[in-house]
């Protein structure tokens, strides 16, 4: 194999490894204990998530992928909210709160939006630095899947339906 072929093979292997890491099933690790401070000033804890299938999405108003996926997050929430599904969108610590409030109000986001002013929530959830990063939490409060980047929403919906059907 020539140098060019080795380089192509290396790039293909790298993308395959990244793809496996990004969409790797995380098993059934418990969601980290954390407190979400919502825009209205109220607080929700990880314990409050139990009993529902919950999507925890770390995002920023400056993240073009986050902004682009937001309509799909809204549609997902609206499709499953009456079946025991919830969403918490966690704005990153570097996102100005006024931008988050403006975005939430102008887009009429129907789910809970939290601001992680201190960065402690992102740190607790695996030191999240890349946005969007999304976690799917089952009814027992366990992380069953995580995505770095925009998820495949068809596959995400299949997973949500499976988890909603669990006892």
From TrEMBL:
The chain crosses the membrane at residues 6-24. Keywords: Membrane, Transmembrane, Transmembrane helix. Residues 25-165 form the Thioredoxin domain. Coiled coil: none annotated. PROSITE patterns: THIOREDOXIN_2. It comes from the Bacteria. This is TlpA disulfide reductase family protein.
